[in-house]
Write a structure and sequence with these properties.
By secondary structure, the chain is α/β, with parallel strands linked by helices. It has 10 helices and 12 strands.
Amino acid sequence: MTIQQLEYLIAVDKHRHFGQAAESCFVTQPTLSAQLSKLENELGVILFDRSKMPVIPTEIGVQIIAQAKKVVSESRGVLELVAQLKGDISGTIKLGIIPTLAPYLLYRFVRSFLEKYPNVKLDVQEMVTEEVVKRLKNDELDMGIIVTPLGESGIVEKPMFYEKFYAYLSKNHPLLAQKEIKANQIKSEELWIMQQGHCFRDQVINFCDQSTSGHQNFHYESGSLEGLKNMVNRYQGMTLLPELATFELSDEEKSRLRPFEGLPPTREVSIILNRSFLKQKLVELLYNEITEAIPQEMTSKAHGKIVRFK
């Protein structure tokens, strides 16, 4: 059994097509098929049902593929760990980040990080929390930047900073007359929220302690904070914005932000990774770069009261 055979195995599972898998591995289909047949003979099991199109893994194949992903990931990690121990900061970081953070956080640290460590490649994908966790467990990602706490077994959370929530109000909204507002002053029929799957949606619902019935004659849920902000600007009502999303608002838009009374609602933002992850030096460097790019007061847990999303 070789690492290369396991890589071919993972590629077929990903593409569910031998030809496409071979192309992604830069080998011919006969070569890939021969290596997988050799692996099956060695193990004494059938890994894929080739009578189906697309091909699907057998029941035992599913379990072996899961183990293969761990072995391949560990093997790559060992090489990068050796490089780091020699003082060579290099390698690839496959990073998943949630949509309510990506537009407001990435630009703050990516350029400076890559300028300091030019031999590191950042491969960033935007996805919801559930997908980040799933891909992390399948070794398809190295780490994620999401909202925590998760409480997932096998997942390490490294909190970086804390974002307060602000109410963002439409022009001439009655609550603009107040310097601070209360959660019970938010009406569900005028609140614009994120669509299903976004943890910020669940946090807003939990904080406001309301139903999600929405506007009486128009229902809209957005996949982005910018979409919600535009509805408030051009229609009416209000939405909630996390702190980083408020920094780039115009002066007029900032005048329509209102903090919440008392200890402000807050979300915790963390790097997450598998407990067995080997690229610890890269994690440390990325963690430091991000926390240095964030206003210092946001790195304190006393910044506010964490709102749960589960």
